[in-house]
Amino acid sequence: MSRKLLVPLTILLVVALVAGCKPAPKPPIKIAVQGPITGKWAYEGEGFVKCVRLLAEEINEQGGLLDGRMIEIIEADDKGEPSDASLVAAKMVDEGVVAVVGSYSSTCTEPASAIYNEANILQITPSSTATVLTTKGYKQFFRTCFLDDRQGLFVAEKFIDWGIKKVFFLHDNSTYAKGLAEWAKKYFEEKGGEGLIDAITPGETDYTPMLTKIKAAAPDAIYFTGYHPDGGLLVKQAKELGLMPDILFTAGNACNNPEFIEIAGKDAAEGVLVSTEPLPHDLPYPEAKEFIKKFEA
């Protein structure tokens, strides 16, 4: 056979083979959801995952992104522990994720953000409010929540408006809680109030020694800035010790959780005030109502 005939025959064979092959699937866009999917704050982590999966499913049903690439959600459980947060972040880098939603607590977001920054991975947290997180100069770190200095200012102004003269600011030494308590105390004192501050050890089962100390100090209000498991127990035991209703019990946004009421008990929780960002149920927009409908389905 002539060599001249071999060339076109070869081309025809290649064309036939290519035509008979299905195009290779496009690689997915990997996005991690990092948070306490298990552990003491699992209620929050599970909500993270559900929200992000709902959005990913909607986008994939519409054909995906970037000319047909599907979104793949990878769950990254840091259990609410800083040491786990670092390990999880390193694992997500190895997984090849291009973006991360999370983590939940500032204490976990802080070590993870250093790792994601080094790998140049986009990170967005919906809940880590510690002001220090945005002082590190990380160009790919963002958040959709307010900062603790703003929440602290809001709370301080409310106390002054309500005629409260003396507040006991109570935290748990975590990055978020300590920062919020210090900001709130600073602004309250600048506006003429008297502020006291101390910390609990999170996870304990008996807070009566601290509550007895607070009762002796006779503040007009308590502002607890830690997380809902400890907050609920503090409210329960404060009620039992007779601090309430003479002392107003208030708490930061990490106590805006149904489990807070379950732990405290409805009778003790009644009258407790929580400073928080608006939740979907608080918003009048049709988009919020549609989201709630899908989330609760």
Could you estimate the helical fraction of the residues in percent? 40-55%
Write the element-wise H/E pattern from the N-terminal end onward: HEHEHEHEEHEHEHEHEHHEH
Strand order across the biggest sheet? 2-1-3-4-5
The rounded distance between the terminal residues' Cα atoms is 69 Å
Average pLDDT, all residues: 91
Task: List the total number of helices.
Answer: 11
Feature tags:
Rossmann fold, five-stranded parallel sheet, single chain, 11 helices, alpha/beta, 297 residues
Describe this structure in words.
The chain has about 300 residues and is of the alpha/beta class. Helices cover about 45% and strands about 15% of the residues. It folds into two domains: about 30-145 and about 285-295, Rossmann fold (3-Layer(aba) Sandwich), CATH 3.40.50.2300; about 150-275, Rossmann fold (3-Layer(aba) Sandwich), CATH 3.40.50.2300. It has eleven helices and ten strands. It starts with a helix and ends with a helix.
Summarize the structure in short.
The protein is α/β, with parallel strands linked by helices and 297 residues long.
Write the layout of secondary structure elements.
Blueprint lengths: L2 H18 L8 E7 L6 H20 L9 E7 L4 H14 L3 E3 L4 H13 L3 E4 L15 E3 L4 H14 L4 E6 L3 H16 L3 E6 L8 H10 L3 E4 L3 H13 L7 E4 L6 H7 L1 H4 L3 E2 L11 H11 L1
Parallel strand pairs: 1-2, 1-3, 3-4, 4-5, 6-7, 6-8, 8-9, 9-10
Helix pairs in contact: 3-4, 5-6, 8-9
